[in-house]
Fold:
Amino acid sequence: DSSDTKTVGLQPIQGKHTTLYRATDDGYKFCHHPNLAVFKNHLYCMWSNGLVHEDHPGQRILYSRTSDGAMWTDPAVLAEDKDGTGVCVSSGFYVAGESLIAYYTTTGGSNFHADTALMARMSSDGRTWDGPRRIASGFFIEGPHQLNRDRLLLAGEHVGNARRTKRMQLLYSDAKDGLTGWQEASIEPTELETFGYTEPSYFKQRDGPIVATLRNYSGALYATASHDQGRSWSPPVRTNFLDSTARTSAGNLPDGTAYLVNNPMPKQFDRSVLTIALSKDGVTFDRAFLLRNEPTHRRHDGKSKLDGWQYPHALAWKGSLFVAYSINKEDIAITRIVPIP
Structure:
């Protein structure tokens, strides 16, 4: 019920909330783009952490980890520009054998600058990291997804001159290292003006294709499907799934159930309500619950700051579904849902 701006007609789901970072007057005041991963019996969360404004010089990457889902380590710096003039944007993790790969985007003065690129650092213990290496051109806020034993999918935004005719960038690789072999998949968006940031996220339909959700300006999610493990994608089409123009987190639970976490509000950039929707077949999402909808207001003003529960990333671990999100683009929190509905 989109007319109900408090609950959108949904009941709350049982969950435990934990704050990983809270902005203070004397510290960094911007947090966004959280990403989760499991590595060697620990759950990791990384996020972008800026001085005041979003994606401004001095923005770095912080991360924290937990062995039990309850007690988290103090945030530590994972990546930063040494001279303080660059911008680092959290772009997720991938586990390659005995190594954890952490990705982040460095921008060339603006997010869609031609020099904007995905970088990576590796660790064998989740605490010490090797030097950064360049992976691909583009702007990314999420790491690779494992489609099957042999293929990875990585998605973000085209940058530079490519944005004249393209928006979403979908890459695939059959290399298992998470670093090499990236090739561009084919996709032809027919309505370029509808898309700014597309921020693709994925789930698999039961006995069907891979589906990517796409952020856009229409008031509802767009979707595209691949029947060949990410090599090619159908023209994006508008769905009936409301979205306020924000990041969505999609995926599959261990039993194959598809989930979709987003801000299903009719007003653009209204992120006051965060929900989760579920589908047994990945076609019809017939169950949905409130994750967060308490009133929340930013304490620190800054460029592009917005109130609300936003930019979720979800991951199933130890019989629970963990959903990380930013609060007002200044705090980072996680909701642990157990049991998974």
Notes: The chain has no helices and 24 strands.
